[in-house]
Amino acid sequence: MLSKISNNRVLSQWVQQCFHAAIAALIFVLSEWIFTITKPSILSITNWGQKFLVLFHGFIFFSAIGILSLLILYLVSLLFKQRARSLFVNMGSVVPAAFLASTILLMIDNFTYTVFRFGILDSFNIRRALYALVFLVIFYFCFKLFSLLLSLKIKRIPLKVGVILVGFLGVVVTAPTLIGTRAQQIQLLNDQIASLSDLTSSEKLPNIILIGSDGLSASHMSVYGYERETTPNITRIAKDSLFVENNFTNSGNTVGSIISILTGKYPTETRVLYPPDMLVGPDAFEHFPAILKSFGYYSVQLGTPYYVDAYAQGVLYGFDEVNGKLANKDLFTQLNYSGFSTFDSFFISNALSRVTDRLYHIFFIKYITDPYSFVTRGEVKNTDLIKINEIISIMESHRDQPVFIQAHLLGTHGSKFNPEIRVFSEGLNQEEGWMTDFYDDSVLNFDYLFGSMIDQLIESGMYDDTIIILYSDHGQGFQVNLKTPLIIRFPNGDYKMGIINQAQNLDIAPTILDYLNVEVPEWMNGSSLISDKITKTPVVLSLIHISEPTRPY
């Protein structure tokens, strides 16, 4: 009889722990939800109905994680004797304590960054350790709080039943939505694939390298007539390439430009101009990488997290790997594939990564580099060289299938430059931004890396099996009215010619599809540069002025 009463009491405490976990998850989700909708994000511009739906789904997701963790702990406790089970119940306070401590840590970090302009991701060495100590103290008191609440005898049945009903209601309401969204995604993909021309299996598809440097103006490239010899290697392949004399970007901001290249759509149509803008709806599926993937391409993007990041910009079913992260390891992507909407996936993945990134950082598990520093402090260093080496490595390891690689280098990104090669700026100090001598050396440095890539492709025997597209996202200083380079080297020197007519980055995807004998989708706004049909697509330029890049965290 006493044993039965004890079992009932322990079970009641487990239910109470589930309630604690749900409440702590709600506090965490509500805090992150308020933070997200009040800062620039795709949630801040959507309607309130969508906002509250995201809040509800976020609560269901995180509370489910907490309750599932407690359920696993409960099942493990059944393997032990009666006395030990009470210990496991007390251990369960770890779950709600983790939620509450994480919430407090994020609030402290938000406060210190907002008021004092420093935070966890700006901390190094001893300061990281101090943050870790602060978190452990917070976690200890949160654990003691929930242990104390557990000792209180709460006999009200509605409280116990309420936990079960909330979880059940969440699953009942959410599951059909996920199934329906997943079905819509599959239908969109099937419709897109069905609309494309089919390539015969006997055709050997070429590799495709889309390589560019940030803020590279054609006017500072000797291949385009600049008086300084800044691009000897690019000039070498331009002789056997499709050379566009008058090319323009479609956006003065990197994100808008890259997405327009990948989708073949105007930024004004996708509404993606600057972080944290993202592709939503059909736009998330209608893009160049998805078409290539349907023909068996292995697709990789080598850019910068958050700023040149297909996952962060909502490109779905396109890239197998982005900035070193596989699609099956990216939470945002996997949530989308599971049926969550773009808004839900963005919120949940962002909230979770904000916590995990900071915990990894302060406990010295993984050093987290703030992407913000790359675009504001000139901390590019050897990352461009690493990307060139990765291009060759990826192609070598995937010789059994065609490869599409988009590589976006940062050496020419201003306003300060850090060129490895010092020819024009030799002996000078970079005392101000946008110094021409340092910029020209950065262009020369990009040309050197480009030449190194070409030499390695030739040496490996992959040169004439590869389409090489050289582009830039915008002109120097984020200008949209400056000509940008566009040079396409086709296998065996096909379509070797110069194009004087005005062109735009929007034309890249249609041109490559045309070369592959794939019908250009109607949703692409650009035109093929190798088509017999002369089409004049208006060049639409977009620019959003930002005093300084937005901070991703």
Summarize the structure in words:
The protein is α/β, with parallel strands linked by helices. It folds into two domains: 2-183, no CATH class; 208-329 and 378-426 and 435-515, Alkaline Phosphatase, subunit A (3-Layer(aba) Sandwich), CATH 3.40.720.10. The protein is built from 16 helices and nine strands. A hairpin with a 2-residue loop joins β4 and β5 (325-326). The mean pLDDT is 86.
How does the overall form come out from the CA principal axes? elongated
CATH C-level of the largest domain: Alpha Beta
Number of domains: 2
The arrangement of helices and strands along the chain is: HHHHHHEHEHHHEEEHHHHEHEEEH
Uncertain runs: none
Largest sheet: 9 strands, mixed
The tally of beta strands, per DSSP, is 9
- List the strand order in the largest sheet: 5-4-3-6-1-7-8-2-9
Percent strand: 5-15%
Query: Whole-number radius of gyration?
Result: 27 Å
Q: Total helix count? A: 16
Mean pLDDT: 86
How far apart are the first and last residues' alpha carbons, in Å?
56 Å
Q: Structural class of the secondary structure composition?
A: alpha/beta
Q: What is the level-2 CATH architecture name of the largest domain?
A: 3-Layer(aba) Sandwich
CATH superfamily of the largest domain: Alkaline Phosphatase, subunit A
What fold name stands as the CATH topology of the largest domain?
Alkaline Phosphatase, subunit A
| Fraction in helix | 40-55%
